[in-house]
Recover the amino acids of this structure.
C-alpha cells in the first residue's frame, strides 16, 4: 500500500519504520529537512520536506496514488487540515491524531463530516489501556471488539486452576459462564477450542466476553488476577482525567495525588467519588500515609519518565502488587524490562500500535468488508470483525444448522447495543456485526467461514 | 567496520559478474571463437570466488553509511580486476595492467583505450569487443543498482549504496522503495538502449548496432571500429548524437515525463544543459567556418554537434579529429569535459547541477562583500539547496581539484607534453576517453608507464564514483573496528 505519513516525531518515525517493515511504500513529510533525512537514511522510504497540509507538498508526496494518509504532527489543527486537504484531492483514507479533549469529544462528528477513517487520541487510548489492565491485571492481552463492548482476553492458566483437566463442555456445565473459549495455546501449538478441548496447566486461553461477564467468570474460577479494587494514581494530567471518566462506572476506587491545588479542585469537583490528595507525589511519607503498601495498584502518571520509573521501583520495594508506569520515551525499554516494572504504558507507542493494526486490517481487506482484524496468535489465528450484509447465506438460520469449515468459530454477535455470545440456537441477522476467530488467515468475508 | 557484510556483498557482486560473463561467452559461441574458453574459465573462477565470499555469514549488524561507501568502492575495484581477466587470459591484451586499464575504462564508461592503433581494435575477437561494450552498459547505471533490481540487499540502509554509486550531489528516490526505484531506472535505461539499437540496426550490422547502443547508453565510448564513428553514415552519426545527449539528461526527468509532469521534468539543470550544448555547437561551428577549416556548413554543424555531444556527455566517440581544430574550438571542448552531464545520468564530469550551485555560491559570496550582512540562500527551481548539500559540493570540488593536480604531477614523469598530460587526466577523471595531443582522437594511452596507468585507473574510478567513495578507502579510521 502507498502510505503518506505527515509529521516525523516519535509516532511518525515508529510508524514509518514498522509500516516499511510490513512492505508498504511509505513517504514521510515534515517541515524539518534534518528530521526527514534521519529517517530516510535509516529506512527504505521516501522523504519530502515541506508543510504537509499544502496541496503542492501532498502532490509531491504522491497523494494521487496514496491509499492512506496519516497525520501525526504536533498540532491537532494541522493534522485535521492535512486530512481535509488530502480528502479533497485523492481517494485515500485519512487518520488524524487529535490530542485536545475539545476536539476528541467531537471525534465521531469529525470523522463523519471530514471523512476521516480514524481519529486517534493518544492520551485517551493510554487511559483505556490502563483501565483494561486495572480491571484484569493478570491478562496477557486484552483486545476490544465491537467498539469496546466485547473483549478478547488472553490469560495463562495457573498450575492450581480448578479448570485443569476439564473439557470446555464440563467447564460450561460447572460454571455456566456467559462467554466463549476461543483458542488454546499449548507450547508451539494453537487450537480453536471446541466442546471437547481439555484445559491443561500453563495453557494460554483466550475468551470472548463482555468486560463484566469476564470479571464474573474470573471470580468464579478463583483466578488470582481479579480486578483491582483500589488504585493510587500519581499525577493529575490528561490521562488521569480520561481514566477517571472511563472507570467511573467500574468498581475501581481511585486515589489521586497531585501537586497543583487547582487541578485537585477540578478533579474533585468533577468526580466526587474519587479521593483527591493535594500533595507531592514523590513524597515518600505521603505515599505511605495514603496506603501505598495496601493499594491494589500503583499508577505513575507524572510528567517525567524518571520520576515515574523511580516511584514504581519504590512502590515495588514496599510490596505493591500491581504497577503501571507511564513512559514517554521507549528507546531504552529493554533496560526497563530488567527493572520488572510490570506494565509500562507508552501513549505514543499505543498510538502507533492502533494505527498499525488499522493499516494491517485495511491491507488484508482490500476489496473485503473486515471491520477490525486482530492477531490472536501471531501468524496462526486471526480474529476478524465483519458486518453481515442483507441476503448473506449466513443470516437467518440457527448456527447449529449452518455448515462451518473446521477451525472456525463465531465468537460474538453484536446487534445494536446488545452483545450475544452465540449458542447453537442463536440466529445471525443482516446488519449484525460478528467476530470470527479462525485458523485460516486473511478471511475476506463472513461467508468464507461456510463450507 | 562490519567486515562480514562487506565480504558477503562483494561475493554477491562477483556472482553477478560471473553471470554477466555469459554475454560475451554467448557472443563467442555465435562467432565460433576460441575466446569462449577464456570467458568460461573466468566465469567459473569469478563464480567460485564470489560463492566463497558469499558463504561468509553476516553475524547481525547493520550496514551504515561507511560500509555502504566501502562496499561500492571495493566492488568496483573487484569487478574491474575480475573483468580484466578475459583480456589477459586470452592474450588479447598481454599486459595485466593494460587489461585492467581497458576494463576500468569500460566499467567507468570512460572509453580510453590502450590499444595501439585503430587496426588493433578491429583485430580483437568479437566476444572481447562485446565484453568491452557491455562493461560500459553495466557501469553506466551502476552494478549495485542493477543488483538491487533483483535482490533486496541486506539491511534497510541501502540508500548509502545508491548515493555512492549514482551521479550527482543529492540522490532522490523516484518512489519510496529503493528496489522499485532501481527497477524504474533500469527500465528507462533499457528501453532507451533498445530504441537506439532499433534506430541503428537499419544502417549498420547487428553487432555494430548492439555495441554502439551499449557504449552510447553508458556514455562510454568504446567502438568496434578503428576510427570510432567516423565511417558510419550521417544518419547513424545523427542518431548517436541525439542519444548521447539523451543519456546525459537526468533520468528523473524521463520518469517525470512518463508521469506527465513536463514542467517539473525540464528543471533548471536540464535547461542549462541544453543551453550549454547549443551554445557550444554554435560557437564551434562559427569558429570552424570563420577560420576556413575546410568543412562545408553541413559538415561543420554535424562534426561540431557530434563532438560537443560526445564530450559533454563524456562518451568519447569521435567522427572528426578535433585535435586538429582551431585552438578556440579545442578550448571549448576541454571546458565541456569538466562541466560534464546532468546529475542522475550515466555521464561523468563535475555535473551541471554542481556547476550551477558553485556559480551561485560564488556570486552570493561576491554580493556579500558589498552587503556584508546580506542573507542569501542558494535555490534551484525555487527550492532551497540545503546547506549540507552546498557544503558537500564545495568539498567535492576541492577534492576533485586536488586529485586532478596530484594525478597531473604523478604522470608528468613520463615525458609527454603538458597538453597531453592535462587532457589525459581530464579525460579519465571525467570519464570521457580521448583527450588532446598524444591521447587525442587518433592517439591512445598505451605509451604511459605502468605507474601512470595505475594513476589514471584510480582517476577513472574516482571520477565515476564521484571522488569520495574512493578517498574513504584511504582514511585509516574507516578500517578501525
Amino acid at each position: 500500500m502507498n502510505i503518506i505519513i505527515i509529521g516525523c516525531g516519535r509516532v511518525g518515525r515508529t510508524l514509518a519504520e514498522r509500516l516499511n517493515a510490513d512492505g508498504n511504500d511509505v513517504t514521510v513529510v515534515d517541515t524539518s529537512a534534518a528530521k526527514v533525512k534521519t529517517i530516510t537514511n535509516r529506512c527504505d522510504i521516501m522523504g519530502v520536506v515541506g508543510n504537509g497540509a499544502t496541496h503542492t507538498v501532498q502532490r509531491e508526496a504522491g497523494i494521487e496514488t496514496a491509499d492512506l494518509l496519516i497525520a501525526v504532527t504536533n498540532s491537532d489543527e494541522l493534522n485535521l487540515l492535512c486530512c481535509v486537504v488530502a480528502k479533497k484531492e485523492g481517494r485515500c483514507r485519512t487518520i488524524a491524531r487529535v490530542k485536545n479533549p475539545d476536539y476528541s469529544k467531537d471525534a465521531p462528528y469529525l470523522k463523519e463530516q471530514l471523512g476521516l477513517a480514524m481519529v486517534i487520541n493518544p492520551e485517551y487510548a493510554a487511559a483505556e489501556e490502563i483501565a483494561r489492565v486495572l480491571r484484569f491485571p493478570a491478562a496477557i492481552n486484552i483486545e476490544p471488539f465491537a467498539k469496546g463492548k466485547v473483549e478478547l482476553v488472553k490469560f495463562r492458566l495457573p498450575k492450581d486452576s480448578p479448570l485443569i483437566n476439564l473439557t470446555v463442555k464440563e467447564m460450561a456445565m460447572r460454571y455456566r459462564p456467559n462467554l466463549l473459549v476461543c483458542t488454546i495455546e499449548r507450547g508451539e501449538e494453537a487450537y480453536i477450542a471446541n466442546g471437547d478441548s481439555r484445559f491443561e496447566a500453563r495453557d494460554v486461553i483466550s475468551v470472548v466476553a463482555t468486560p463484566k461477564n469476564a470479571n464474573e467468570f474470573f471470580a468464579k474460577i478463583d483466578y488470582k488476577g481479579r480486578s483491582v479494587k483500589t488504585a493510587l494514581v500519581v499525577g493529575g494530567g490528561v490521562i488521569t482525567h480520561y481514566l477517571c471518566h472511563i472507570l467511573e462506572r467500574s468498581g475501581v476506587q481511585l486515589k489521586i495525588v497531585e501537586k497543583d491545588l487547582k487541578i485537585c479542585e477540578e478533579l474533585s469537583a468533577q468526580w466526587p467519588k474519587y479521593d483527591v490528595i493535594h500533595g507531592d507525589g514523590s513524597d515518600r511519607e505521603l505515599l505511605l500515609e495514603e496506603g501505598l503498601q495496601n493499594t491494589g495498584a500503583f499508577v505513575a502518571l507524572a510528567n517525567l519518565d524518571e520520576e515515574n520509573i523511580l516511584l514504581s521501583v519504590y512502590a515495588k520495594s514496599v510490596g505493591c502488587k500491581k504497577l503501571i508506569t507511564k513512559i514517554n520515551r521507549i528507546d531504552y525499554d529493554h533496560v526497563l524490562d530488567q527493572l520488572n516494572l510490570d506494565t509500562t504504558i507508552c501513549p505514543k507507542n499505543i498510538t502507533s500500535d492502533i494505527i498499525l493494526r488499522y493499516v494491517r486490517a485495511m491491507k488484508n481487506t482490500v476489496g473485503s468488508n473486515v471491520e477490525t482484524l486482530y492477531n490472536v496468535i501471531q501468524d496462526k489465528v486471526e480474529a476478524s470483525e465483519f458486518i453481515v450484509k442483507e441476503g448473506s447465506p449466513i443470516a437467518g438460520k440457527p448456527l447449529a444448522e449452518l455448515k462451518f469449515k473446521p477451525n472456525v468459530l463465531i465468537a460474538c454477535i453484536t446487534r445494536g447495543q446488545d452483545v450475544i455470545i452465540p449458542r447453537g440456537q442463536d440466529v445471525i441477522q443482516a446488519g449484525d456485526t460478528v467476530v470470527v476467530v479462525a485458523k485460516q488467515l486473511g478471511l475476506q468475508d463472513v461467508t468464507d467461514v461456510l463450507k | 567496520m562490519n567486515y562480514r557484510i562487506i565480504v558477503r556483498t562483494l561475493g554477491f557482486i562477483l556472482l553477478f559478474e560471473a553471470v554477466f560473463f555469459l554475454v560475451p561467452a554467448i557472443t563467442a559461441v555465435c562467432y565460433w571463437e576460441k575466446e569462449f574458453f577464456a570467458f568460461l574459465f573466468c566465469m567459473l573462477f569469478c563464480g567460485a570466488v564470489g560463492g566463497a565470499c558469499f558463504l561468509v555469514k553476516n553475524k547481525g549488524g547493520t550496514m551504515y553509511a561507511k560500509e555502504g561507501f566501502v562496499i561500492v568502492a571495493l566492488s568496483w575495484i573487484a569487478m574491474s580486476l575480475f573483468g580484466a581477466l578475459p583480456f589477459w587470459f586470452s592474450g588479447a591484451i598481454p599486459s595485466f595492467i593494460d587489461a585492467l586499464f581497458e576494463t576500468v575504462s569500460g566499467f567507468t564508461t570512460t572509453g580510453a583505450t590502450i590499444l595501439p592503433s585503430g587496426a588493433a581494435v578491429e583485430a580483437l575477437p568479437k566476444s572481447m569487443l562485446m565484453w568491452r561494450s557491455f562493461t560500459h552498459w553495466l557501469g553506466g547505471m551502476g552494478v549495485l543498482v542493477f543488483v538491487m533490481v533483483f535482490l533486496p540487499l541486506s539491511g534497510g540502509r541501502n540508500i548509502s549504496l545508491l548515493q555512492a554509486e549514482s551521479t550527482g550531489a543529492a540522490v532522490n528516490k523516484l518512489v519510496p522503495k529503493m528496489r522499485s526505484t532501481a527497477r524504474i531506472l533500469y527500465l528507462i535505461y533499457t528501453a532507451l538502449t533498445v530504441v537506439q539499437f532499433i534506430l541503428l540496426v537499419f544502417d549498420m550490422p547487428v553487432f555494430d548496432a548492439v555495441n554502439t547502443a551499449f557504449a552510447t547508453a553508458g556514455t562510454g565510448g568504446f567502438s568496434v571500429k578503428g576510427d570510432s564513428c567516423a565511417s558510419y553514415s550521417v544518419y547513424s552519426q545523427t542518431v548517436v548524437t541525439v542519444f548521447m545527449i539523451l543519456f546525459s539528461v537526468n533520468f528523473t526527468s524521463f520518469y517525470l515525463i512518463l508521469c506527465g509532469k513536463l514542467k517539473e521534468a525540464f528543471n533548471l539543470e536540464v535547461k542549462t544543459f541544453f543551453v550549454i550544448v547549443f551554445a557550444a555547437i554554435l560557437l564551434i561551428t562559427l569558429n570552424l567556418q570563420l577560420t576556413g577549416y575546410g568543412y562545408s556548413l553541413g559538415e561543420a554543424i554535424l562534426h561540431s554537434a557530434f563532438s560537443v555531444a560526445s564530450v559533454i556527455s563524456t562518451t568519447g566517440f569521435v567522427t572528426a579529429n578535433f585535435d586538429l581544430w582551431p585552438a578556440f574550438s579545442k578550448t571549448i571542448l576541454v571546458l565541456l569535459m569538466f562541466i560534464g552531464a546532468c546529475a542522475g545520468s550515466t555521464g561523468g564530469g563535475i555535473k551541471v547541477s554542481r556547476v550551477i550551485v558553485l556559480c551561485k555560491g560564488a556570486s552570493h559570496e561576491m554580493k556579500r562583500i558589498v552587503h556584508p550582512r546580506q542573507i542569501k540562500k542558494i535555490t534551484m527551481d525555487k527550492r532551497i539547496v540545503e546547506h549540507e548539500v552546498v557544503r558537500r559540493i564545495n568539498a567535492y570540488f576541492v577534492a576533485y581539484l586536488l586529485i586532478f593536480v596530484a594525478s597531473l604531477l604523478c604522470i608528468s614523469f613520463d615525458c609527454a607534453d603538458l597538453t597531453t598530460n592535462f587532457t589525459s587526466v581530464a579525460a579519465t577523471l571525467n570519464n570521457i576517453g580521448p583527450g588532446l595531443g598524444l591521447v587525442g582522437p587518433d592517439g591512445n594511452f598505451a605509451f604511459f608507464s605502468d605507474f601512470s596507468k595505475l594513476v589514471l585507473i584510480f582517476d577513472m574510478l574516482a571520477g565515476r564514483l564521484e571522488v569520495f567513495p574512493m578517498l574513504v578507502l584511504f582514511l585509516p579510521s574507516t578500517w578501525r573496528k
User: Anything to note?
Assistant: Residues 412 and 418 of chain B are 8 Å apart (CA to CA).
